[in-house]
């Protein structure tokens, strides 16, 4: 029942960076997260990212296979506004990831995932709904040959069914 209290539309545009980045186009991603306030003004929140999925295709004649990742993370969001959920924020995250880099996505390797998200949260309406725009840097560490470092632009609309 708890998971049906929140509805979120969350998408991202992702670019692989670092040593394994050559030969890949920008990718797309979807993610689902929710957060719980830890103080009365709700500018500090514990976040749970139940999944973050990114998929990347290769550039023409690069000789590489498509790659993808899936991560599950927890974090803490601090909004730099002492009066509510609207404002710039920073959110460190840590968790677990699975990556693959073969044509049929069958060779999967797991490991640690670390991310930092920064952006702007805008409260809309009177029920705790919000629009969130942000940038995320993620480091997925399942092994040296499948390590993926990404930078993403994220957009999320979070709708709260229970209200305030």
Which terms summarize this structure?
164 residues, mainly beta, Porin, 8-stranded antiparallel barrel, disordered N terminus
Descriptive notes:
With 164 residues, the protein is mainly β. The protein has one domain: Porin, CATH 2.40.160.20. It contains no helices and 8 strands. An 8-stranded antiparallel beta barrel has the order 1-2-3-4-5-6-7-8. Strand 2 (27-37) and strand 3 form a beta hairpin. The protein is elongated, with a radius of gyration of 17 Å. The model is unreliable at 1-5 (pLDDT under 50).
Q: Which class do the helix and strand fractions yield?
A: mainly beta
Round the mean pLDDT to the nearest integer and report it.
86
Q: Strand order across the biggest sheet?
A: 1-2-3-4-5-6-7-8
Biggest sheet character: 8 strands, antiparallel, barrel
User: How many helical stretches?
Assistant: 0
Kindly identify the CATH topology: Porin
The percent range for helix content is under 10%
CATH class: Mainly Beta
Describe how the helices and strands are arranged.
Blueprint: E1 6-17, E2 27-37, E3 44-56, E4 67-79, E5 87-100, E6 108-124, E7 129-141, E8 148-160
Antiparallel strand pairs: 1-2, 1-8, 2-3, 3-4, 4-5, 5-6, 6-7, 7-8
Care to give the gist of this entry?
This protein has one domain (2-160): Porin. The chain contains no helices and 8 strands.
